[in-house]
Predict the structure.
Amino acid sequence: MKGVVFPGRRSLELGDFPDPSPEAGEVVIRVMASGMCGSDLHQYRSAEPPTCIVGHEPSGVVEAVGVGVSPRLARVGDRVTVHHYAGCTVCDECRSGWYQLCREGAVRYGADAHGSHAPYMVVPAVTLVRLPESLSFETGAALGCGTGTAWGALRRLGHLAGADLVVSGQGPVGLSATMIASAIGARVIAVDVEASRLKMARDFGAAEVVNPREAPVNETVRELTGGVGASLVLETSGAPQAGTAALASLATWGRACFVGLGGGAFEVDVTALLRTQVTIMTSWTLSISDLARCVDFADRYSLPVDRLFTDRWRLEEAAAAYAAFDQQRSGKGVFLFQ
């Protein structure tokens, strides 16, 4: 089979790989959709990229089942999404479903082991979450990482219904957070420097939008909240200036969660925050049990996750796909295999 690999510095190749077969406890997935994630760009641009097939947002159908896999975990023909990590399975983190925090060292598919930008992928059966017929494979791909990351961060923030929530950055993760939080009943204030993304945020339920190029974020947020500030902030862009603005937008007793990667460090003025009683936290994707809850929520509330995708590609178009994605001027891309 063909699989996408990154030789380094924005280059891409379609390499030849043997079709995988499952070992004990594993399954082979026939990939139907493989999403393109912002973290893939870090690998694409790197001088030292992974040597495996890349891609970590798979959704598809179980093609083959290895020895010892319970039918309760996987059967041939099951529609699935994948919690794209593997761990030792016995440490406390793994046993609670947080394979990415494995104390023995996590395996990240698409970085440490072959990923999903290929027709087939082999993973441990315990990483699968069944996908209802009502959800497309494209939705399943997004839920596995980008949209799931938004879900995990919102769960960390806590009670959303009726709260003023600033979502900083309206890329795929930020738009997913806007969509989910609006469905739950939060008043979302969406922040981004691109007018097209703010329009999408409106379409996904944002009550207010703020462009930092037009007005200071923290001042605008306080105007929109009667001078109080937002009780909740989710920062998805990774930009240092966005992090500073996010903290300045918080109300007393507010809670801020950071998920953005790659933007660099910024300073936190503890003295300025000391009397505000705010909570600052991070979120790293989500547990496999939360992925199952996220799938269920998307199904129950008919979330329009497919609308996150602005570009759909075939695997043979991978070079053009990543060249376009590298510009970061559109929404989310996905490789389709049927």
About this structure: Residues 55 and 307 are 20 Å apart (CA to CA). The mean pLDDT is 96.
